[in-house]
Write a structure and sequence with these properties.
The protein has five helices and 18 strands. By secondary structure, the chain is of the alpha+beta class. It folds into three domains: 70 residues, no CATH class; 128 residues, Jelly Rolls (Sandwich); 72 residues, Phage tail protein beta-alpha-beta fold.
């Protein structure tokens, strides 16, 4: 018998077992064919099932890994521009009141595992009790459980005032102290922590009520605060190496504030526009 005859006999034997109405669509036809082939080849069917299972498991693992990475590294950033204040609520209900030109970052989806915050600027923290919370800044970090405190972290300055509970302040040189209410810590240029008790600790948070008090502060630092609160630019000329003691309220306009701080030092200012001023010596 010829090969062609054998081939025809095989086709007749195979397709005689497959009863497929001609009006069925292509997808249905192939489905029936796959079933018939699987019935005749159990080993192929098992291999196919194994491949499907491995693919499903791999997809599930990738999905789990992707979700974990998103939870761990997704960051929420709160940026407060000049001229504004903002209240931020953390996932556990803790509240941070942010001064102008401040930035706060945290990981919302990872909060239940680790309460970590990156912070710069000035903020009043009212933290709910729970696991340890860490606030990291360029010059140092503050670690708490449940308490309220104020952090000032700008340029090369880092200051922490404890208002309630206890806070641990750690410098970049790994020096650390624990503060109780009314105590204030400040880091010097070498990373040493200087601690003192404040007679009026509430003065450190007067900025929340838009009152800004200074005690023997460099005049240039006071000018920077005025720029920050009013979102203006103040240019200076000459030597302004003075220390200023006094206060101003945000309810005052910039002209009034500049007149207030310039007068004691015999300085004058010129208003170039609504957002630009110049301070110089007479």
């Amino acid at each position: 018998m010829s090969n062609k005859a054998n081939h025809n006999n095989f086709d007749d034997a195979f397709f005689s077992k497959v009863n497929i109405p001609y009006e069925k669509d292509k997808q249905t036809v192939w489905g029936v064919l796959e079933n018939k082939i699987s019935e005749q080849s159990p080993a192929k069917k098992v291999a196919f099932i194994k491949r499907r299972a491995i693919t499903a498991i791999a997809a599930a693992l990738l999905l789990l890994l992707g979700s974990s990475l998103i939870m761990r590294f997704y960051t929420r950033t709160i940026l407060v521009p000049k001229g504004e204040h903002l209240n931020a609520q953390l996932p556990d209900g803790s509240v941070v009141k942010l001064n102008a030109e401040s930035t706060l970052k945290y990981f919302p989806y990872w909060w239940r595992f680790s309460r970590d915050i990156e912070f710069s600027g000035e903020g009043y923290f009212d933290i709910e009790k729970g696991s340890e919370l860490e606030v990291s800044s360029t010059k140092g970090k503050t670690i708490v459980l449940g308490t309220s405190f104020n952090i000032y972290s700008r340029n090369h300055q880092y200051e922490v005032t404890c208002l309630s509970g206890k806070v641990k302040v750690v410098s970049t040189s790994h020096e650390e102290v624990i503060l109780t209410p009314d105590y204030h810590a400040e880091l010097d240029e070498n990373g040493n922590i200087l601690v003192n008790k404040l007679d009026k600790p509430e003065a450190t948070t007067q900025w929340i009520n838009k009152m800004f008090k200074f005690s023997s502060e460099p005049l240039m630092q006071v000018i920077e605060e005025i720029e920050r609160q009013y979102n203006i630019v103040i240019k200076t000329s000459g030597n302004l190496d003075y220390l200023y003691t006094g206060y101003f309220a945000k309810s005052m306009n910039p002209d009034q504030v500049l007149n207030l701080i310039c007068k004691p030092f015999g300085l004058t200012f010129v208003k170039k526009s609504e957002t630009e001023f110049m301070i110089f010596q007479k």
